[in-house]
Amino acid sequence: MRVTIQRKTILETLRRLKSHPTAEELYSIIKPSLPRISLATVYRNLELLAEEGLIRKIFVQGSSQKRFDGNPHPHCHIQCINCGKVDDITINPILNPIKFIMETKGFEVTNYHIEFSGLCADCKKQPSQKEETKNGRKKCKGNKN
Amino acid sequence: MRVTIQRKTILETLRRLKSHPTAEELYSIIKPSLPRISLATVYRNLELLAEEGLIRKIFVQGSSQKRFDGNPHPHCHIQCINCGKVDDITINPILNPIKFIMETKGFEVTNYHIEFSGLCADCKKQPSQKEETKNGRKKCKGNKN
DNA sequence: ACATAAATGATAATTGTTCTTAATTTTAAA
DNA sequence: TTTAAAATTAAGAACAATTATCATTTATGT
Question: Distances in Å between the alpha carbon of B54 and those of B1, B24, B69, B73?
């Protein structure tokens, strides 16, 4: 992957930000310093950087736009149902997370959305089907996408 | 909310399914028994049923389409990175979830995505700003949407 | 500096979803 | 029941977010 000014700026800006901006928000932030940058370049590079594991693409409840996170490591977010703000939170998975959030952040959890991903029992047994598909996953009987 | 055949069928079909279909998938499933149903009706009613808390709209990582879940209660999903299948999982939040998933489902967790929502400390203090916006949230200084 | 593969900018096309309109269906009252 | 108002529908247009296209520009190895 080449190092271009656009790519470098996108990654550095996202890493510096504490928020989890959409592609367009990031575009507006970068535009003043790189006036000739195209929105498509921002989208393209965010996608690429996420594929490379340097950043993270996140799908937040209630937001029709995808958001991006400069921290590539699995971690939790807390989103306020009133203002929509999305913050990071570090959780020791052994603890009771909801109680922990209450006590450390003063954040009242009323709902949660948790997704674990990995290999299901079936796929662990038969890791044969490796055909690539558009969405980057493998084909498999259980695939509903 | 009125009881129409379309609405009833959408809710019942979604409840019966163990998967978490997209609006289009649900549309194809329902079409044979209700050939005159429109895709827009499926979208409209899924949105409505989710607003009423009868079903749940979920945003799964890596899927550009929204998915719907007949189980309206907050719960966890496990998605296989190989086949993309999304399953339900019941977790006592006090336990170590990853260990629990391994032991009960034989599912190897390699990544997770967790979002808690509720009221942040700021919004708990000043629940004044109640102006509705297009995305259904309230306006607030921290709002990045 | 040069060649060339890769990346960019501008914009067209596509995708997923919502809106609009007129027609139909449901509900509740007469 | 019949009837009228209100809600809901089907169909397709419109919309916003994202991706693809392609001519031009740029980064990197030689």
Answer: 12, 19, 9, 9
